[in-house]
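Summary for the funding panel

The consortium committed to producing paired sequence-structure records for every protein in the target list. Below we show the first two records in order, beginning with the earlier of the two.
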Amino acid sequence: MDTSEIVLLLIAAVGLAQAAFLMLLLRHEGKRAFRANRWLLVFSLTACASFVEDISDVFLSPLYILYLAIIFVPVTFAFLPSIYLYFCEIADRPVRYPWGHFVILVPVAILTAVAVHIMRTRILPGDIGGEIDFELDTDIESHLPVAVILLTIIIALYVQLFGYMVKIWRVAIGYLRQASEQLGADQRVLRRWVTELLTGISLIFLIFTATTIVDIFITDSEWLTTLVQGAFALVFFRMCHVIAHNPALFVQAEWDGAQEMAMDEDARDFTATGSRQTRFAPRNLVDADEISRICKRLDAIRTRSDLLFDPLISLPKLANAVGATSNQLSYVLNQHLGKSFFDFINEVRTGEASRLLVNEPDRTILDIATSVGFNSKSTFNLAFKKITGRTPSVYRSETMSQRNTAP
């Protein structure tokens, strides 16, 4: 075992540990986070397969490595779709048939199986102990079918790589623009997370591209492969660090039908076919009845659900829950409640935080802040002081003192 193999084993072991830790963190984010985090779980599982492949390359015989290519090669095509689907979810642009993005794994697996069969039966008959070294530049004429299959897979991988990277950047930039306009979250934290994830993924696949080209057409690139896997491990480490310190970044809205029906059972009726239909479909005009209905829905949402504590709550999401357009909701908030969207959200969150600060004195301020939807202590302090005139710590100490001295 040479030095590069030892280093690769260490990186693979660290990478597997980091991936496992990341998956545990994602699972502990809860049910509300799962819709988006499931795609990071797929990404983590795909990376695990890559690390396992590195370990198998060191310990298994070439023949078994050849057979395992039927699994490991197709799995490579799951990396970018999983990241793309994650950004679509957090940007509130879910894909209708998300698993369709992974259909490509099937033909790739079939092509890989055909190539493995040809190599085993025609190119390497009876060779189960020696090195399997198929170079595209030297073997393309003598083993044309295998070379064509491998070249097809490589081209498909790079088409997917560049296509998805463009789509990922577009969705991510749109998400950051949406966040700056509609979200009450800490923009600095959100921007840092998105930028770091995009930069890390982009660098990994740029290195991967260079490594593959060198490995195929020039010479062996064991150290470059080690560099790619090391980059994966670093990305996982950073992802774990950000998630552990900013858990609320990854909590999505959860608004189920049971809650909605319980809050406004009168607002629903049935069509002649028996299907359920809402009577408050969005309208352009906001009359007195509509204003009253929107206010009642807002009050119901405030008192009967935790939707407003979702750190990624936005004006369109809240308008959808209310059953109005964004313009209608904004008009009612501004003209009839005298508040902006952010003021309304922060007022509700601050009210709940005030109760928790007094009733649960053992909880940290940061814990309470994230539980009501703030992404950082600094953002929480600013919003809390703007509404109450005191910082959370001062409010807690003064209120507790008054309670203790009361007769």
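The next record, for a separate protein in the list, is shown here:
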Amino acid sequence: MRDDMDKVIVERPRRGGGVQGDGRGFRNSRERGSHLGMKRGHDHPKGLNENLAPLKRWLHKQVHRPWDKVYAELCSGIDRRSTVQAHIFEHIDQFVERGAVMRDGQVWVNSPRWRGGRRVPLREAAHVELFVHPVTGIVLPNRRLREARQAQQEAYRVARAGWPTDKKRHTVFHVIDEFTQWHRIDGCWFEVTIAPLPELRRTVLDVTYYDVLRRCPVSRRGGCEKPAFGSPDHREMYGRDHVYAAAMCKLSLQRVRERFGDSCEGPVPKHRARA
């Protein structure tokens, strides 16, 4: 570890590097007071900040090393008697999980504080990049980090949308009338209002409409543009060509039971969306 790691992390260079002079002329002039503070006359003092990127890079280079040796090297380069330098140790737990334990042959780590502080499996820890193995004491990387972060982003997306966005969950729909269909999405039924796409005219450019079920713009000429849900084909999605979902609302359990009975599953549909 570099000897000036504490300065690289905490201290920032003085502002105004292109300005000559350090206020010495003012401090030696007659206009100054009889008692002058230490900061008077210094227009560009040195500031303090946290630049944790060098510390993070150094810790990632210590992978497959014993944590005791890594910590000893860190302590040898940072004086814990200094308040500024000792502040660096407060950020170590942000980059290295030191409280991992073994449960049923799997590594479990602490979850973030805003989730209650309970332990979660390492494969589900999207916040852990490095951890100390509870048996060997070696610093190891979280090889399931990408999968955990993808699952976390998908969970956030589902929470914001209010209902699942997985394309494979859309399986069945039933035609109620010419402009109304019932679509089953992850066990819940939604009433979807179907609207036709207007025919193109030579004097009018192709107009796009927003499909609320697939959550993407659609047009008569361009079709569907990368739907976030379901199938891009109109016939596969709605059983007809040149239509789109103009509105949708969730159906109550009472209305579903009135039509399909107590099972709420509905009869076997003739149309199925592409998985």
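Regarding this second record: Residues 167-260 form one domain. The chain has a mean pLDDT of 77.
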